[in-house]
Amino acid sequence: MSDRDPLSEIERAFDVLGDQFGVAAGTVPTDIVDQGDSFVVHAELPGYDSDDIDVQLSEGRSLTISAEHSEESETTDGRYVQRERRQQSLSRTVSLPEAVTESETAASYEDGVLTVTLPKATAADDGTSIPVN
Length: 133
Fold this sequence. Notes:
Elements: H1 6-21, E1 30-34, E2 38-44, E3 53-58, E4 62-77, E5 80-95, E6 106-110, E7 113-119
Antiparallel strand pairs: 1-2, 2-7, 3-4, 4-5, 6-7
InterPro entries: A-crystallin/Hsp20_dom (IPR002068), HSP20-like_chaperone (IPR008978), Small_HSP (IPR031107)
Protein name: Hsp20/alpha crystallin family protein
Family: Belongs to the small heat shock protein (HSP20) family.
């Protein structure tokens, strides 16, 4: 009988694949689209509910998406009792190339994809110009 752990080998294979494709385990795969007047971020979060997802914007340029889900199930069949627990959490922080207007951001979640729309900040959003007399 072998001392090899097949689950460890599978996890190692996923780590290698993640490294090769630039997405590490435990992160959220994202696409950021520049639509001229706004950025749109698409994040893949299959299997999560919208209540499991937290989206934070800090300093007008740093977007953090995190999700945490846990479930518990119990099955009884004759002499055997099986109880399983699963907890999964993911997180990703992306830096936006330009500042955005925090008060006008919006997020929606549908079919496992989170979409965050972040309107770009205009010159007026960067502060107020005070004329000197």
